[in-house]
Amino acid sequence: MDPMEELPEYAERVLEVAELIPPGRVMTYGDVAEWLGEGGPRQVGRVMALYGGSVPWWRVVRADGMLLPGHELRALAQYRTEGTPLREAPRSAEGHVPRLDMRRARWDGGDGDGAHI
After folding, report:
1. Is the residue at 49 inside a domain?
2. Which of 4, 27, 31, 106 has minimal CB crowding within 10 Å?
């Protein structure tokens, strides 16, 4: 993206939410859309795919806790550094890549860890 090119307003708002998520916590694409009161999981996913490289993209995730395909190892390194709760993959799982423990890792915007946009 050209640095002089202006981000769409919705994209700016999605990226602002991504930056508020505390280390070790995650929000789903749908959580971010709900927080904003606009769009849906697909729109948030598109914003993250196009513009998310400048924010902690690994903290905006799929609702099933699966790591982002093609970025599993980079995300996993971040999760381990930040202490994000993970569930180890069963031995039968392809590649034995853990999943996020969504019950423990999901952030609702509370806990005094950030202000609501």
Report:
1. yes
2. 4
